[in-house]
Amino acid sequence: SLPMGAGSVAPIARSDVAAALVAAVTGPGCPREPQVLTGPRPFGHDQLAEVATGLAGRPVRSSPCAPDAFAEALLRREASPWWRYAFQTMFAAIELGAFAECTGTLARLTGRPPLEFPAALEQVRSSW
């Protein structure tokens, strides 16, 4: 359960973030303003559960939870105050739609599209 309400997020792979950083600082015309990096498509709770089901090989379901319940779960896991703040503000922004738009920034910086979220997760799993 995640406190993102009906919001969605377009996750981006760490390797894509790294490629964008390299391209931004070494490519022609280094951007002077912040760049928003997102993956190629947004995922809501149901879509995240589908991806997790494929990765886990067993059914996974996802549903919204209240921010307070999520904060309590973080406390039970002894997350530091910094991580609690980071997760809570990130999910609040997701609920408001801050990371749902597919920006195309990676393609503009690197000349290639971002990895699909399931492929990015598979890339991480294969590196373990």
Mean pLDDT: 90
In terms of structural class, how would the helical and strand content be classed? mainly alpha
Radius of gyration: 16 Å
What is the general shape? Answer: globular
Q: What is the terminal separation in angstroms?
A: 25 Å
- Major beta sheet summary: none
User: What is the tally of helical segments?
Assistant: 6
Ranges where pLDDT stays below 50 over 5 or more residues in a row are: none
Annotation, overall tally of beta strands: 0
Topology order in helix (H) and strand (E) letters: HHHHHH
Proportion of β residues? under 5%
Task: Tell me roughly what share of residues is in helical segments.
Answer: 40-55%
Account of the 3D structure:
The protein is 52% helix and 0% strand. It is mainly alpha-helical and 128 residues long. The longest helix has 15 residues, at 81-95. The relative contact order is 0.28. The model has no long low-confidence stretch (mean pLDDT 90).
List keywords for this structure.
128 residues, mainly alpha, 0% strand
Short description:
By secondary structure, the protein is an all-alpha fold. The protein has six helices and no strands.
Give a topology summary.
Elements: H1 14-26, H2 45-56, H3 67-76, H4 81-95, H5 105-110, H6 117-126
